[in-house]
Fold:
Amino acid sequence: MPRTPRAARTERVTPCATHEERCCDDRDPPDRARPGRPRPDRGKAAGLGRLIAAGERVPAGFCLTTEAYEAGRIPRDEVAAAYAALGDEVPVAVRSSATAEDLPEASFAGQQDTILDVTGLDDLLAAIETCWASLETERAVAYRAAHGVDASSMAVVVQIMVAPTVAGVLFTANPMTGARGEMVVDAAEGSGAAVVDGTVDADHYALGPTPPTQARGCLDRARLAELREVGSRIQEHAGSPQDVEWAYDADGTLWLLQSRAVTNLFPLPETEDGELRVLMEAGHMQGMQRPMTPMDASVMLDIAGQWLDNFGAGALEVSSLLRFVGGRMFLDLTAFARSPGLRRRLPEMMAVYGPRVVAAVEKAVQDPRLTPRRLRMRPGNLARMALRTVPPTARGMVAALRRPDVERREVLASVGTTRALCAGPTAGATVDELLEVAERVHGEALDGPMLRALNPLWAAMGSQSLAGVLLRGLATESEISGVVRGAPHNVTTEMDLQLWRIAAGAEEHRELLTGTSVPRLVEMFREGTLPDIGLERFLVEYGHRGAAEIDVGVARWGEDPAPVFDVLANYLRLTDPEQAPDVRFRRAAEEGEATIEQLVQRAREQRAPVAPLVSFLLRRARALIGLRELPKFLWLLALERVRHQLLAAGTLLVEQGVLGTAEDIMYLQLDEVRTAAHDGTDVEATLPVPEHEDGLRGIGAAPGRATGRARVITDPRGARIDPGEILVAPTTDPGWTPLFLTAAGLVTETGAAMAHGPTVAREYGIPAVICVKGATTRIRTGDLISIDGAGGTVSPG
Structure:
């Protein structure tokens, strides 16, 4: 059995050579990373070094550094001496420690080899060779490529083996749920390798804010408490949640074998007070399965502010209700979850979003860290909100219940009103004027059509809910919901049926629409060579719709009708008449009407006094519920106008030389666009392209001369430079520098002499000319050019 290992925290571990990854030293490893390589303070060795520096118990050992790997030869004598210092033929673990491991965004878990229970110098040297070779296996190369890591190097950690009685993994944040207040332990008797490899059924423990009251399996309460305490220390020292491998030996001593960052956690929201917050992701309610563009986040905050103003709640801070984290939109429910009067009702208030949301909110409000706090709302604000919203909403609901057909016609007429509000030219406007219209159109739409369109919806939902109460015990929730199946007057359903009618009428063009590529169909539509199937009229009515349509950064169908052609092709492939959308909708409508008759009859038989009211409520719910899609339909008209205004502003900024394309404005925020407009004209953009007698002039940034074929590259991803070619780019940063290794020279349109690109160019000894205006358009790939990195000129070769 291996002897009990010495703790590395009690003595310095013997290093093999001067090395970049210094697991034996309390000092931070020097940052001597080469271009295109991860920093050398990554990997197992660096992680162990941080544990040692924090005073944690780590088995003694030594590190064979990246310099040995890059030299291609194992320093046998030094390894032998370091191994002898650990003890006579002591069993050791030989662990790969690649510089690309344990990155914040990629752990590289299991990509390189670890060899356990190695005894004897010859076996140790063979194990080191195995670790080195694992850096270039097919899986490791593919993993690096998938994570954008173009190069890596390998250190090897050698440590005295721990003979574990129980071992496993500790996550200081739950990697499955993202909960940072909950630690997770997986443990099994014997070696922890089986837990990491997934070859055993490990005991699983979730450790909350307080120590566990009981424990089953291979870990008792005391050891779970110790692991939790150690995890807290390591996380605090590292500054982020950690994935820790550990083992208990026969004496009951806890040893730490590895620590690295947990890589798949969602980013924490920024908070001013650092307190626990309750956030609900809201984008999914609008079908957003992707992060929003920065401009959309900015627009949403602006819209939320206008909503608060319209409801008379302008004193509330938008940032206290709406937050964006990792490009996702969240509703901040913290104030409501803390309120003694609202926290018990909050799960019920969230029922409209589904049972999973309700369960999550119920758990959140029971968290002991969420201490009660009164909702701070001035009585005056509450009074203004009530006066602003209650009377018109009540009048609208009563009108909808009294005369649903009249109210429905008037509300549907708001589509034309909103279209008129959202119409108007953009030509001749300044950036400021375009932004002003983009903001004003929402205020005008919110203040009239959209607010009124909500009243029939409230009436329908209230009627359905009250009918459910009256039928409690007589009808299931499914039956109550079935009342509104196939409800009429739904603008989204009508859109889908209109598209089906277009497909049905285009039967003679079936082969064209199903056999032609969608890009070609779009091209034919735009050039006017596609047969008239009614698509243009459809896009006039519904061209403001699309996938992820609440994001102003996403093109609508009117701009890109490709998704519409996909749907038409699917409809044309439908051969079963019973599955036709209009037939299915008609069948659903019949089922909805039949459900009302059944429930009303059931009420007559068992609760006769309330039967007339049940009938009234269910029929009103069905007559009005189809309008539930109308407010969003109107909102999207306003959002489409906002998008057009922003693209027009983007075009102006392109003309001023501020942006590369009009779409780039979607990666800015409203205040950033205003700043660009208020800063005035880009003086440099108004200057003529500087030339000398034979070519272009810029600024010399790296001395030397070179002549070669130009390679114009605007994006380094997937790009290549053949030896001897001159790289011509709009700009460069560290992500471009791997291309420098084969380039004969560098030309950029922007930059500074002390920026990363020119600095690396000087280190590599290649000439560089920067700030050459129009270089990527005036120079073409294949042109023979000569550059003078001292004089700052680019000439024909």
